[in-house]
Design goal:
Elements lengths: L5 H5 L6 E3 L6 E11 L2 E9 L5 E4 L8 H19 L21 E2 L5 E3 L4 E3 L24
Antiparallel strand pairs: 1-2, 2-3, 3-4, 5-6, 6-7
The chain binds zinc ion.
Length: 145
């Protein structure tokens, strides 16, 4: 019933001239969005004169909305994976030992001292002789000694 062959219809492009099978006028292909509510679910070529559906627009590979969306997500995930630093490991008592938490650590305005070894130390230093400073059970704070 269609005058035009399938070949003609599948190779339509916007503005292509063809004889419309519906109104039988020499018409132009009009690229039309197929809407579902407010969402564009596809595109088709329609007769510019009567609006009859001619052929679906083959979605270009890589440019359809869905594809582009997932690619964007992947790109975003990749971006996040690269830019977001690994979550720091939780500080578990007993696992991380800083000299500042040590029983033998003595705070000093100018230099921190290790009383056990009798030498200067840094608050973020670590030591094999680490002994956790007792924690005040009432306040949960370290005892000031
Ligand atoms: Zn027509």
């Amino acid at each position: 019933m269609l005058k035009m062959s399938n070949h003609d219809m599948t190779n339509l492009r916007s503005g292509a001239a063809a004889v419309c099978p519906a109104c039988r006028e020499e018409s132009l292909a009009k690229r039309t969005k197929r809407m579902e509510g407010w969402t564009c679910v596809g595109e088709y070529f329609a007769c510019a004169l009567c609006g009859a559906h001619w052929a679906d627009v083959e979605p270009d590979k890589g440019t359809s909305h869905e594809k582009r969306g997932s690619e964007r997500l992947e790109a975003l995930a990749g971006l996040l994976g690269e830019s977001v630093p690994e979550a720091p490991k939780p500080l578990t008592p007993g696992c991380v030992t800083f000299c500042k938490d040590c029983l033998h650590f003595m705070r000093h305005p100018f230099r921190d001292r290790c009383l056990l070894h009798g030498r200067d130390t840094g608050s973020m230093d670590d030591c094999a002789s680490f002994e956790r400073r007792p924690v005040d059970q009432n306040t949960g704070e370290e005892e000031k000694s």
